[in-house]
Structures are given as C-alpha cells and as structure tokens.
Amino acid sequence: MVQGAKHMKSSNAADNGGSSPQPKPQPKPKRRRKRLPRWADRLITIVIILIGVGLMTWPWILDRLEASGVFNQISTVSSTVDALSEEERERILLQARSYNEQLSGEATELPADQIEPYAQQLIFDRDPMMSWVEIPSIDVSMPIYHGTSEEVLMAGGGTPGGASPPPTGVGHLEGTSLPVGGASTHCVLTAHSGMRNLSMFDDIHSLEPGDLVLLHTMSKTLAYKMVDSEVVLPEEMESLTIEPGADRVTLVTCTPYGVNDHRLLVHCVRTKYNKKDVDKQKSLADRHWGKREFAVLIVVVAIVLLLLDIVIHAVRKRRKAKASA
Length: 325
Prior knowledge:
By secondary structure, the protein is α+β, with helices and mostly antiparallel strands. The protein has helices at residues 2-15, 38-83, 86-104, 150-155, 275-282, 291-324; strands at residues 129-135, 140-146, 170-172, 185-190, 212-217, 220-232, 247-255, 262-271.
C-alpha cells in the first residue's frame, strides 16, 4: 500500500513534467502621472481665459476703433461748422428749412427757384456729413449722409478729392425732411444692423418710450423722444409721411438679424433738450446694455475670478506652511 502510494506520487510528478507550480505574475505598479506645476496649470488657465475673452471682445474692440474714427470725423466737421460765420450758418439753415417747407407743401421762406437741390443741402466745406445723430441710452453716435445707398451706409459716400472714405454712417432718406427740425417735418434716418464687427443700429430695438435721440446740425442740438416702434414690410412705409404741424424723426433698420426681410421703425417726436436727461441716459446705470457692455462685464468677471484664485491659493499655502511648522 505504501509502495502503491509512492508509485502514485511519482506518477503525478511525472505527469506534471516534474516541475513545481509557478507563482502568478504580479502586476506592474502603475506609474503616477506627474502633475503639472501649479504655475503651469495656472498659466494654461489664464491663456484659455484670455483666448475666450479675446473672442468675445474682439467685435467690441473693432466697434470701439470704428467709434474712434467717427468721433474724429464728428469733431473735425463740428470745428468746421463752428468756424463758419453766423451769416453763412443762417444761409445754410434757411436753405434747409425752405427745402422742408417745399416737401410739406407749405409756403417757403425762399422763392422756389432759389432752393438748392437735395444733394447740395447742408453741405459745408465740401464734407459729405450733413449732421450727426446721438442716442445716449445705447451709446450710439454716427454721422448722417445724403441718401441710403450701400456706398453711403458702409462708407459715407466718400470724400471729395479722392480722400479716404469717412467711417460707416447713417443714411438720410431722400424725400423726407432734412434734420433741422420745425413744424410739419419728418426726418427718416436709416442704418444697418447685424453687421459683423459693427454695432451701428443693432440696439435700437431696445429703445423704450422716453429714450432720447439727438440731432446735431449746424451747431444746434435737437432733442426727440422715442414714442413707439413697429415692424413692417419694406413696402409698408405709410407711417413715414409728414404729419401737419408735427416734428418727427424715425429710425429705420432691417430685421430680423440674418433674414432682413422686414423693417424696424422707431418713431420719435420733438421734445425739449435737457442736458441732465441726456447725462442720465448716458450713465451705465440707465443705459440699455448691448453686446459691448456685456463684453466688458465678461472681461471684468474673468479678471476677478483669476485674482480670487490667486488669493485663495496664497492663503492655503500660508496655512499649510504654518501647520507643518
């Protein structure tokens, strides 16, 4: 029996090839991935934030550059007008008033044969800018040119003598009253909206009753307040006619963005100019916020969050150093 058992053990050993059981292979220890240094992690975060902020604010930056060009042109033309003699300014205004009176069918201050044609109205020192419009509550200031052609709306119609074209502007609709105010007048001003990198009339849809629209013509400031708005088809322009005795301005732009098959009309009526009201609507607290204001807000929030992260990390590091001391 003992010999039989020994024989069985030797047989099993022979069957197993005479080898002992192999140990199971141990898994290789995983290498711990090295974390980026804190400064590198923060640098990447800063770069990502700056890229995002840059993409958000780039249209606003371009718009500000455009606004700077507009401001320079307005300042130049305003200086030219201020340098005119009182008699010359009155002559130009008399021509414009007579033109408007002729449009409304009223008796004109000048004989009909002495009234200059549209293209020669409100022209001084060969500059194509006839006036400029300011809308304090949406931070818009733009020059006004004759006509509403694409050339006018995108480049102001060019300047005499082959000079560089002036900044993008507002077109005055020919056949409507010139921007000098007065009874039985209706001045219609048009500009693009939804243009890439240019705000122009983008934000006039946010105007509310009481918001001011200012026309600056021949050193005079005419104030109008918004009363209502409407969206119409391009051919539905009945509300742009002259109302006897009224002094009105209407702002016109295409809508909706990207489609532009309708027109947004913002109607305004003459009101008394009050500098305090203008300053209040210019303030950030009372201004209607558009993409420019939101872009600035995003930049400020991004900077605050970044500074907060730096402060929190510094506090934690100090506490850790104290605890280990």
